[in-house]
Please model this.
Amino acid sequence: MTKIFVTGGAGYIGSHVVKLLGQKGYEVMVYDNLSTGNQDSVLYGKLMKGDILDFESIKTAMADFQPDAVMHFAAKIIVPESVAEPLKYYENNVYGAVNVIKAMKECKADKFIFSSTAAVYGEPKEMPLSEDMPLSPVNPYGRSKAMVERVLEDFSKARDFRYVSLRYFNVAGADPEGRIGETKKDATHLITMCVRTACGKRDKMYVYGTDYPTPDGTCIRDYIHVMDLADAHVLALEYLLEGGKGDVFNCGYGQGYSVQQVVDAAKRVTGVGFPVEYAPRRPGDPPELVADSTKIKQKLGWKPKYNDLGFIIKTAWEWEKKIL
Ligand SMILES: NC(=O)c1ccc[n+]([C@@H]2O[C@H](COP(=O)([O-])OP(=O)(O)OC[C@H]3O[C@@H](n4cnc5c(N)ncnc54)[C@H](O)[C@@H]3O)[C@@H](O)[C@H]2O)c1
Ligand SMILES: O=c1ccn([C@@H]2O[C@H](COP(=O)(O)OP(=O)(O)O[C@H]3O[C@H](CO)[C@H](O)[C@H](O)[C@H]3O)[C@@H](O)[C@H]2O)c(=O)[nH]1
Model:
């Protein structure tokens, strides 16, 4: 059995990838400190509670498991928090990633899949974004991820080490079978906020910024269903296992929606006219991020199945009602 070591596999995205890996017959070991993750979300494999900042611990866990490949999801992920607490982001996301790679070096694991982000592009003028555009992140979260991409580039030149960096755009929705979804009580992502307000877990939600240079003044993002993203991970893994060279791929649909359009769609899908307040801009938010996803389709044969904002919201809504 091919063995995959998954840091952050108890988190929102990691748990969906673990589910797919388990269904495809991979042997999985999740390494997670459960700071934002949930042990009940790990449907396959073993879960070890441990911190990527603790080098001895992750080295021992990896050496015992002897993985064929490592998927690295563990990170801090909230853009405005990264502006307020930059050191926490550099420590967890950069130093933490270096520890994971060092542990791989010690136990001779040489294939790595990295959770990067659209935030590495910053505030580009041209849209959609292709992988060869310059990296110019505008917040510490994006910078921490761009730094790890550089580490990977350099380390793969120095050693027999191959990696795929997947630059996720805005990941949303839940497992269509309803077994897992977002569980963080203090989640901040837009679609989660919409469905939590619709089911009364929050009194109201805010739209941050109505004066952006976009058609309706609110920010535009490219929302990708979490199971399509999980598929991209399995394709990237198969690519590396078959000898593919290190590479970087955008993960998005190439279709942007404004915050206002998402809120309107959420009201339609849920059938609830939940309260929305208009608030000032949130620090660190670029006006628009939309992917050019040609490369992942051509090179990895990615075929998204859930490219439908209504379906993304519906799966998130069904999950929220289930965990009420
Ligand atoms: N959610 C998005 O829209 C999005 C977009 C782009 C990139 N990403 C990236 O995807 C990855 C997963 O994000 P998510 O949305 O599932 O977040 P999440 O918070 O649900 O998952 C992160 C997981 O990592 C674990 N973790 C964090 N720090 C750790 C540490 N020091 N040691 C061990 N485990 C640790 C947490 O307990 C959690 O289970 C992150 O790397 C994030 O930067 C997410
Ligand atoms: O209650 C809310 C929540 C969000 N927004 C707005 O909705 C848009 C999307 O915000 P999210 O918080 O859902 O996501 P971000 O775009 O800030 O960031 C997410 O996607 C990025 C990639 O685009 C990063 O990778 C990051 O990890 C991940 O959190 C932003 O304009 C934000 O201001 C609101 O108006 N109200």
In short: The chain is about 40% helix and 20% strand.
